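Project outcomes to date are best conveyed with an example. Our students and postdoctoral researchers have been running inverse folding experiments weekly, and each run begins with a structure described purely in tokens. The record below, which covers 148 residues, was selected by the lab manager from last quarter's runs and is presented without edits.
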């Protein structure tokens, strides 16, 4: 289960790349924390996870979609306004022998970020669901200079 968990978590963390955050949070040094649960149906297993990271969001960072970079065909993520300043997101990807669907919400200010996600993978007779919450806060207005 440990290997499956790490693979699942790396899929969730793909949206945490600096380019994905551009336009959602302001440039600077950010601390992000993610926690959640991975549920596999066959055999039935549920495992919690927790991860934290610091990211540098630079002004020149390209704006990008908040869509995991799955190999396969993915629909364009659809966003709609939600209650209390949240933006709701939905997407669907076709992967070899299956599908990945995701939905969640983002709520951000110049100095804070919160989101919740549900990502379901169906591949043949196997399926898994990841429930994830990501929160962040701005640590500084500038990042350390890039190393050559």
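After processing, the design step wrote out the following sequence:
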């Amino acid at each position: 289960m440990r290997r499956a968990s790490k693979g699942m978590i790396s899929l969730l963390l793909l949206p945490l790349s600096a380019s994905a955050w551009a336009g959602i949070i302001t440039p600077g040094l950010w601390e992000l924390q993610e926690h959640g649960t991975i549920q596999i149906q066959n055999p039935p297993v549920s495992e919690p996870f927790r991860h934290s990271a610091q990211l540098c969001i630079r002004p020149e960072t390209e704006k990008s979609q908040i869509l995991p970079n799955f190999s396969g065909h993915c629909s364009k993520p659809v966003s709609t306004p939600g209650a209390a300043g949240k933006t709701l997101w939905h997407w669907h990807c076709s992967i070899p022998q299956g599908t990945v669907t995701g939905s969640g919400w983002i709520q951000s200010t110049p100095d804070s970020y919160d989101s919740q996600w549900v990502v379901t993978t169906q591949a043949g007779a196997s399926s898994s669901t990841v429930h994830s919450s990501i929160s962040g806060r701005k640590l500084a207005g500038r990042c350390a200079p890039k190393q050559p």
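The first strand starts at residue 28 and ends at 40. The beta strands are 28-40, 45-57, 73-74, 78-81, 87-95, 98-109, 112-123, 126-140. The training component of this project remains on track.
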